[in-house]
Request: fold
Amino acid sequence: MALMNRLSLFPLLLAGAVGLAGCGHSDEEMAAKQREVDKLTADLKAAKSQMDQDQKKFNDAQNEIERMREQLKAAGVGLEKASEDRARLSQALAEYKQRADQLTEIEKRFRELRSKLEKLNSFGLRVAVRNNRMVIQLPGDILFDSGKDELKPQGKEVLAQVAEVVRNDNQLSKRMFQVAGHTDNTPYGGGPFKDNWGLSLARARQVVVFLVAPNTPPKNPPAGKKAEPTGGGLDPKNWAAAGYGETDPAAGSIANQSKEEKDKNRRVELVVQPNVEEMLNLGTIK
Reply:
């Protein structure tokens, strides 16, 4: 403020100095006034320089304030996004834990299921996991004669035992099953089934028909003969048939099969159908 006052007085002092010169003042007085004018001129120059510096600092300060304002704005957006990311992560972790708990429960369910199905091993059957499906494998030679789709008496007895295990278990009786027929790679032709697909499908159908037929043995079987089972008494809506022919061998390959491999490939499988939420790696079930 003092500097500004001095600057404002400078024109008046300068005019006074000029006036004194015109009024016949002595050289000494004129020299003193000139020194005062020179000093004021120097002060004015210094004041202008200071003002320029102060203006630059002011401008720099304004720019810094604006930069910090932008940074704070960006930081605010960043914090908001980080908060949203944390919320999404928390939700994802909660969903993952829920899914992990579901898978643990499903795995437990399949372990129990396999334990129940392994009762069938005593009947000469095999419970296995193939193509991530739990299956009950029935050798084809037990069920059918070569090239035929008519169930043998021994085959009916085995299927009746399987049906009894499924029917008397509350969990198994409600599950969906697919009966899958398979053949070896020996070509089939000229018969009523046209090809291996036709034969495998016909056999699968015969197994389904027997499993869902009423479980009512004859009241008066012929003397000296054991009554054959008439059916498994299972719920028809839970069963379906499919024929794979030679396309899904359990041993060897489609092109090359030894005699032992052919024996293994002539089979019928009862495939436990998983629900959508049960799509997990069954190979981990021990």
About this structure: The first strand starts at residue 126 and ends at 130. The first helix runs from residue 2 to 22. Residues 2-104 form one domain.
